[in-house]
Each structure stands twice: as C-alpha cells, then as structure tokens.
Amino acid sequence: LVERARAWMELGNASSAAADLGRALRVVSREERGIEREGNREALLAATGEVTDRLIVLHADAGRAERALAVSERARVAHAPRAVSGDSRGTYPIQRGRISARTQVLVYRLIDDTVYAWHRAGETVTLRRTLVEGGGDALRDTISRLRTNLERRAGEGAVRPALEWLHSVFVKPVADLVAM
User: Fold this and answer.
1) What is the DSSP string of 94-139?
2) What are residue 53's phi and psi, to 5 degrees?
3) Are 109 and 65 in contact (CB under 8 A)?
4) Is 80 helix (H, G, I), strand (E, B) or coil?
5) Given phi > 0 = left and psi -120 to 50 = alpha, else beta, which region is 122?
6) pLDDT of residue 153
7) What proportion of the chain, given as a percentage, has pLDDT over 90?
8) How many other CB atoms are found less than 10 A from the CB of residue 116?
9) Burial of 40 (0-12, 13-18, 19+ CB in 10 A)
C-alpha cells in the first residue's frame, strides 16, 4: 500500500494516494502490536511517514491547508497509544467542529528542511511554511544542544542564540495569527 501510494503521489493523484495511505495507516495501527521485530515496525512506520509527508506537501502546495493538517494529525493519532488518541474512526482532536470557536491551536511538523505550522482558530486553518537554514538536522541539533545547556543551567550567553533562532523558526512566522 505504501509503495502504491508513493506511485500515486508521483502521478499527482492525491485522492488515490490518500486512500492507499489511509489504508496503510490503518494496517499499521491494527498490526502494530503484532509486529514482533522492532526493526520491521520501524521500517513500516518510516515508510508510512515518508508517504504521509509527501501527501502533506501535495495538499499544501495545492492550497489545501486543512487537508494537509488532517493528514498530519491522522498520522500522528494513528501512531499514538489508544489511551491518548481515543478514537479509531479517523478523527483527530483538533478537526473542524471538535474545538470551541474561541480556541486557537498551533501544530508543527518538520518535513525535510521546512517547518509546517498550522494555526486553527474556529473554522479557519492557516498554513505557514518556514525554510530551516541548515535543514532538519540543524534544527534537531540546535534543540538537543539547547536542552543540554538548559539542563546544565548554562548562562544566558550560551542559550540566547539558540532561543532566538528557534523563535525565528517557530514563533515569528505565526505571531500575527495568534491573538494574545
């Protein structure tokens, strides 16, 4: 299913790719406990994650921010423990009609070298994309070093550059959307 979804993506057929991806995610959810070897589970999740990312990009590029968010959230919830995700019918916690009109939600996802940031306020979903200088590895490394510096109670000089850079990646692109 994952390979077929990948093929549909290459052909630009988002609806067929989404259908196969949805089936693949359901298989992963259903079979996750039955997959004995950890390496097999990780390989299946990695392949599914790659197709999920491509599908998100396809929807985002087509201006379908809410569909891109739905794909991201359904994939996240599909891999969450049932006690966390709660619902196995393809819903996710922040979809239309499940949060109050006054609630605002930010959801982030790193795909390749780009941070996707969705802002949901009531029925409106806005997507902002930020290209990460140095790519995803630089972002992960910065977060890891910052965490270590904070745990070691490093001084302001050691943490400020990382905090400012992370602010430029995560906060600044959506600051105008978030009502304080």
Assistant:
1) TSTTSS-TT-EEEEEEEETTEEEEEEEETTEEEEEEEEPTTHHHHH
2) -60, -45
3) no
4) coil
5) left
6) 93
7) 39
8) 21
9) exposed
Please write the tens of the pLDDT for every residue from 3-31: 888 888 788 887 888 788 777 767 766 66
Q: Which two tokens stand for residue 106?
A: 């930010």
Tokens of 149: 């510096």
**Which tens digit of pLDDT belongs to each residue from 151-172?**
999 999 999 999 999 999 999 9
Per the listing, tokens 């006054």 go with 102
Q: And the tokens for 45?
A: 């999740």
CA atoms of 31 and 25, how far apart (whole Å): 10
**Surface-to-core class of residue 155, CB atoms within 10 Å of its CB (0-12 exposed, 13-18 middle, 19+ buried):** exposed
One-character DSSP codes across 92-104? -TTSTTSS-TT-E
Tokens 């996707």: give the residue: 116
- Within 8 A by CB and 6+ apart from 91, the residues are 77, 98
